[in-house]
Amino acid sequence: MTTLTLIKSATLKALLRFAAVKDSRYYLVGVHIEPEGYAVATNGHILLAARIPAFEGAASFIIPSAACKLALQLKVSELAITLKEQHAIGGIPFIPIDGRYPEWRRIVPTELPSGKPGHYSPKYLQTVVDAFRDMGMAKSIEGIEPMMNGADSAALAVCENIPDAIAVLMPYRTSGLLPGDAVKHVKAFLAKPAG
Fold first, then answer.
1. How far apart are CA 166 and CA 147, in angstroms?
2. pLDDT 10s digits, 45-59
3. What CATH number should be reported for the domain holding residue 130?
């Protein structure tokens, strides 16, 4: 049995928060492992990428979420990803998902963010916070502030005490409510007496 790499259980737990669930894009229902030393999960709306030790002897592959969940039940701090005649994580054998994983690096912002606002799902913002907490975000940090990049580009979220992971959030389209419309709404709300 050849150990390809190791992954912290806390990192794997965090990644699973981002993996798709029962998606027709079956290749997203798992954790993508790259020999360059990255583990990545996305549901198409949010993405988490984490560094793991780089390895040789195998191409990129996708570990099914079901195998990851079984491995996490072992309650160990670190899991070996191995290859003999078949792949295994923490000794749990799995067949890699046969599919082409998206080019995740293409959506990761690498330039200074514009700071223009975008609309982000509160559920996904909480997923990012929960994932960073899984990986050891300091208790003194109450949340994250996505580095917004406008309504059409991904926002980046990082945690200052977790240098080996980044999260990306895609903005969602709104119904077209403009800031002026919101102000009119507030004025009308405040002008009406209760009752």
1. 12
2. 999 999 999 999 889
3. 3.10.150.10
